[in-house]
Design a protein that fits this description.
The chain has 127 residues and is α+β, with helices and mostly antiparallel strands. It has 2 helices and 4 strands, in the order αββββα. The chain folds into 3 domains: 34 residues; 45 residues; 29 residues, no CATH class. 43% of the residues lie in helices and 24% in strands.
């Protein structure tokens, strides 16, 4: 009876250790997820509000290429960013202003509206 009692005691003593380890692992995983969510939320926050460089918008045009509208030193620039470098595409004389519709959202160009409608139609959603 001594051997089975020792085996039962051994099994009973490992279960609390396993439970504690599993709980610790769960806490670490939750902490990682919360930190990742927080970093994602803070990605748009800029430190040093008086910075002279601001990104107003951007568009991904390829796998590694972007077009960005930036404000640098009071000038508005349209730049192209790629693996090969950064190129100035256009320098605006006046700040570009997107016209707004009744809801306050920027007005979409005709192609974007047509594309949105075609995409909704292909996905089976009514507009």
């Amino acid at each position: 009876m001594n051997a089975p009692a020792a085996a039962a005691a051994s099994t009973a003593s490992t279960l609390p250790g396993f439970g504690q380890m599993a709980l610790s692992l769960l806490v670490v995983l939750v902490l990682i997820l919360v930190l990742a969510w927080g970093l994602k939320r803070l990605q748009g926050v800029r430190i040093g509000g008086g910075a002279s460089l601001r990104i107003h918008g951007g568009l991904q045009v390829g796998a590694k290429e972007k077009v960005l509208l930036i404000e640098a030193g009071g000038q508005h620039l349209l730049i192209g960013v790629s693996a090969g470098g950064v190129n100035t595409l256009h320098v605006y004389a006046e700040p570009p202003v997107a016209p707004a519709n009744a809801e306050g959202a920027p007005e979409l160009p005709p192609f974007a509206v047509a594309f949105r409608e075609a995409l909704k139609k292909s996905l089976g959603k009514a507009s």
